[in-house]
Amino acid sequence: MIYRLILSLRNARYKGGRHSVKASVPTVCIGNITVGGTGKTPHAELILRLLLDSERWGSSEVALLSLGYKRRGKGFQTVPYNGTAAQYGDEPLQIKRKFPQVTVAVNKDRVQACEQLASAGANIILLDDAFQYRKLSPSLSIVLSSYSHPVTEDSLLPWGRLRDLPKRLYDADIVIVTKCPYILDLQEKEQMAQTLGYDSYDPQTCLAVRRSRKQILLFTGIGYSRPLPVFEQQADSRYTYSHKIVLFTGIADDTPLRNYLSDTYSIVDQIRFPDHHAYGAADIGKLKAAMKHNPTAAFATTEKDAQRLRDLDKLPPELRSRMFYFPITAEFQSDNERQLLIEKLTAL
Asked: Which CATH code for domain 226-326?
């Protein structure tokens, strides 16, 4: 009750853009209402691809600004390609390595950081996980809600996974339902729109209406690419042909990856760590024990975990040689939905 009251008072303070400022360049905010598990990073990468491939922004200076959760560094920093997850955060480092042409920066003060990026030449800034940062009012706001765990069917912390009021879903310009099954039919989309509290939903225009408030409602799924070595120089390619997998993850929700791997591999062991987990000596011990019990198995993990694992100097070569990650992507359910988001980005 106290947490809900605090959130309600905070929401009232910033309602309607009061006490918020705009950046001097267009900004796109992507965030969620839960504490994780919606696929925010692959969706940030999806938006970056759309920006870089567009006629409007393709030749511009594109930047991404992140908090850099659990990073060791302080203040405003730009993320180098060869940086460490400990210094800059796993998600910013992952994005920088996949998009070296994008300026990736981390800072707690988003207002100040946006001005620094704009002064350095950025023409548009993607604000990663900034929906709760109310001091900055974005040009376009996008909120994610997982298909299997809709915001409207969850509860506030500590009883559920919501870190913000569920009604804040309706403050966004665009809502994306993520981690959907491969193909959703019209009835399933309409049912999800009802679950999220909308009075109506038009699949042709992707417009959802709640109490006369119109929003764009889109649907995406998750896909995975072929496995890549965590440690490229030390990888033993023979393990890519193994049908046995030890799966270890430090993310909020590994269900999509687990389901994907179970179609092809036998998951002989699974080790779960907390989201953004900083791997240490005790964790290496767990992985070595799993290797001893499964001597022919490959070790599979997530792309985000791979960034943190590379910081481990004491990881033995026999573990490094068999560690692989599966790159993750987010894709729209239809070309119409993809084009609609492109139009919104182009109009900024």
From this structure: 3.40.50
